Amino acid sequence: MNAKKTKIMIFRNRGRSPNLKFNWDGKPLEIVNNFTYFGVLFTAKLSKKATLNNSIKKAKFALNNLFLIFYKGKLKTFEARIKLFNSLVRSVLFYAMPIWGLQFLHDFEKFETCFLRKIFCLPNLVPRWAINIETVHKTIRSYFYGAVLNFLARILTKPETHPVRQCYDALMDLKAKHNSIENWCQQMENIMKTIKAENVWNSQDADQLYRSKSLILEKLRQGEINDYVNLMLGTSKYKHLKHVKNKVITEKYLNSSNWWETRGVRRRITPSSTRFFGQNFTPSPSIILIDASTRRRVDAPSIRNHRRGIFK
User: Fold this and answer.
1) Which residue from 35, 43, 310, 312 has the fewest beta carbons nearer than 10 Å?
2) Closest residue by Cα to residue 249 from 90, 109, 133
3) Angle, to 10 degrees, between the axis of helix 163-177 and the axis of helix 140-156?
């Protein structure tokens, strides 16, 4: 064993670290408070929040590189951009996620929403549902539940003598004796209840999970869309959206190579705002815009009156 490469970590719930010293072959071993093992950050207090922040930090770095690809590759369509996001950024964010990230779905959704706001030049006050009802893409929530179900199915297919299955059975025994939110199996059970798959969880059968997976995810996706529609119909801030959005589909203009049409989502979601051009911007007669609601070209000076006629 190489003493220089070997680290000691003392796990504890609270308090100061005990004053201990470790030696190997007469050489002292370093005691650390955190250690990255196979890409996953472990802390002395087993803080999953620290692991989340570390993954978000890596994903942000990948996201910065992604925008360089958008610029150099002249990728303007929403379809191309969201595919690259899922391939290059979400994969980094979701690395080993089923092990440590079952409690952080909301944080993952916030990260995806920040990306969508950025590519559409939307202000931070625009809610996630307003963007998703316009794009109707496969959200990070669907990928989250899909990854969790796949991970659980792989565990259930392991033989009882496999170390992974033995750890799983031990956690199930602990859950039966004492319910704790920190217990991985308890978190998994809560997720299965959330997606209304208690019968699959109670069966503990990998084959049934594989058979039911696609149906579960489809119901989740439909329920997610219904929630967005209900929010759109009940909102008081974005009343115009229910008049603009006739069908729950991805709008064609999002996959247009025209720069103005691609940014048209801002004019649809915040039709009375001119902050797209700056706080005190005065439209110039030389600028031609495309109104996404009617697919017609309109002169910039008359776009406000044009919007008022549609969204009043």
Assistant:
1) 312
2) 133
3) 100
CA distance 216 to 213: 5
pLDDT at 294 exceeding the cut of 60: no
Q: Which residues contact 172 (CB under 8 A, 6 or more apart)?
A: 185
The H or E element containing residue 65 is: helix 48-73
State how far the alpha carbon of 287 is from the alpha carbons of 74, 254, 283, 299, in Å. 22, 20, 7, 7
- Residues 6 or more apart whose CB falls under 8 angstroms from that of 64 comprise none
Indicate whether 270 pLDDT > 70. no
pTM: 0.77
What pLDDT sits at residue 302? 43
- Residues 77 and 263: beta-carbon distance below 8 Å: no
pLDDT of residue 278: 37
Residue 229 burial by Cβ neighbours in a 10 Å radius (0-12, 13-18, 19+): middle
Tell me the pLDDT tens digit for each residue of 78-125.
Answer: 888 999 999 999 999 999 899 898 889 999 999 999 999 888 878 888
pLDDT of 145 strictly over 70:
yes
Helices vs. strands in the chain: H and E counts, helices first = 15, 8
- In three-state secondary structure terms, 122 is coil
Dihedral sign computed on CA atoms, order 113, 114, 120, 126: positive
> Which residue matches tokens 């691609």?
262
Provide the phi-psi class of 278: left if phi over 0, else alpha when psi is between -120 and 50, else beta.
left
What is the residue whose two structure tokens read 């893409």?
Answer: 137
For the chain, how far is it from start to end, CA to CA, in angstroms?
Answer: 74
In this structure, what token pair is assigned to residue 271?
């039709």
